[in-house]
């Protein structure tokens, strides 16, 4: 009986940790559903209730974007990415950051020193958790992205510390074309 109780406690702990730390390996790699309003070119504001977002977004994206959660540090696929391209809001597709504004801050989340433009993000005071911070939200759908701090590199001195789970990335087409043009043509014999 003692072993059965111990096994049940271990199982409960394992399930709790899995829920705390994101999706299970069975869910990873599945493409996330996109909102019908998802667009890299549309600029009209997206207004949906949290209930509507909950039906569309994965639990991880919903937790960060709509409930102002935070992903675990050092878990984002974009934290050390050196790819050239554009980072978009994973919720609505709004362009947020260019890869040339990304840098290694060592904080555990993707960091940028400036957004694509002033309309791509919204900043708001965040006094939660007993701290004074500046929250960063998507300028189109108002999803929570992360926070901005004044300890970044030149030229702005800012560090936009962004949850990778709320980012989508698209490689630059010009970089891809440039790479492909440098390839040696195949000889036709």
Automatic annotation (TrEMBL):
Active-site residues from the entry: 161
Keyword check for Magnesium: no
Amino-acid positions noted as binding Zn(2+) in the UniProt annotation, renumbered to this chain: 89, 92, 138, 141
PROSITE patterns assigned to the protein according to its UniProt record, in alphabetical order: MSRB
Listed Gene3D superfamilies: Peptide methionine sulfoxide reductase
CC cofactor note: Binds 1 zinc ion per subunit. The zinc ion is important for the structural integrity of the protein.
Protein's UniProt name: Peptide methionine sulfoxide reductase MsrB
Organism from which the protein derives: Dyadobacter beijingensis
Phylogenetic lineage: Bacteria, Pseudomonadati, Bacteroidota, Cytophagia, Cytophagales
